[in-house]
From TrEMBL:
Superkingdom, taxonomy of origin: Bacteria
Gene Ontology terms describing biological process: negative regulation of DNA-templated transcription
Keyword Chloroplast in record: no
Keywords: DNA-binding, Transcription, Transcription regulation
Any single Pfam family the record assigns to this protein: UTRA
Region (Disordered): 1-20
Molecular functions per Gene Ontology: DNA binding; DNA-binding transcription factor activity
InterPro entries with a match to the protein in the record: Bact_HTH_transcr_reg (IPR050679), Chorismate_lyase_/UTRA_dom_sf (IPR028978), Tscrpt_reg_HTH_GntR (IPR000524), UTRA (IPR011663), WH-like_DNA-bd_sf (IPR036388), WH_DNA-bd_sf (IPR036390)
Name of the protein in question: GntR family transcriptional regulator
Domain HTH gntR-type: residue ranges: 20-87
PROSITE patterns: HTH_GNTR
Amino acid sequence: MTRSTEYHPRARGGSARGRQVSSRRVRDLILASIREGTLDLDTQLVEEDLIRMFNSSRAAVRDALNELSDAGFLVRRPRLGTRVHRRDLGLELTAISGIGGESVEIVIREQRLVPNLPLVRTRLNIHDDHVRLVENTFHAFGETIGLRSAYFSASYDADPTELAGIPLTMERTAAEFFGTDPGDAWVSIGAERCDERTGQILGVPAGSTLLMREITYTTSDGAPFQIVFDRFRADFVRFETRHDHRGVA
């Protein structure tokens, strides 16, 4: 199908006049389109089409494509063009499974008893001399995407390796490992620079940005039973939630 020249980005005098010139905004729109399925995996992206689609300058589109290629979302090859390579993984704020049905598996790195800590003693109301520490990695898309350190009472003596290598949800973990139904969760999310040892585990350079998540899980009757500290690769993971503002003054 052909278009009149009045639709071309340069038809009104100047390649960027009145159009989007921020590669950051173009990058946002492309990533959101990939997440929504507007741009499917393996779709070929053509600069001219994106210029029209996002009402953007050529420089902004080209910079955004290069940035997304560097991050691994796109593949750019001479004479073959640019194609969508992968999506990122959306996680609910307190979940360990992908919201789009993506499989997330764990691998246990370490489990042992450690001296009880003031934070754990106070928050979980545990007064024993020792608590249990389990550290595991998260895996999706054939990559190590995250790392968790979990603290809880030593009275929970189930073997976490029995949950390794299979798709998990927090509901399943609470039921099969802790023998309880999950209730509320308190969550705090931030960002930090990756240290060298963590970078070796996650396969990223030291200094890379990680998403940091601290969660305290409670049972269905409100008793806190576990504190976790998660670190996720910012190039693979995003957090999502839905909030109903109806009726909020």
